[in-house]
Amino acid sequence: xxxxxxxxxxxxxxxxxxxxxxxxxxxxxxxxxxxxxxxxxxxxxxxxxxxxxxxxxxxxxxxxxxxxxxxxxxxxxxxxxxxxxxxxxxxxxxxxxxxxxxxxxxxxxxxxx
Length: 113
Prior knowledge:
By secondary structure, the protein is mostly beta strands. Helix content is about 5%, strand content about 50%. It has a six-stranded antiparallel beta barrel with strand order 1-2-3-4-5-6.
């Protein structure tokens, strides 16, 4: 299995407020494809942080989470760019910094094992 489809690597294991979704998220940013594990925050965590009700989260190697809104836009699996055509994902749009002046929506792919 290519490294970018490994959904078993949960770097935030043990945080009960951010359980791992068993998926990865890839998004295109400034000509590169970025990757993260995808998490499903609890309602309590979203309420505490005033995140949108439909928010998910991505993690960083620094041990922090960022809330994102993911909207599926494709019905079939597509090749994720820059993976050598070995990784398929469901086409989506991901919004970072929802509701702020820094809000940005990018092309994305949800990759499942």
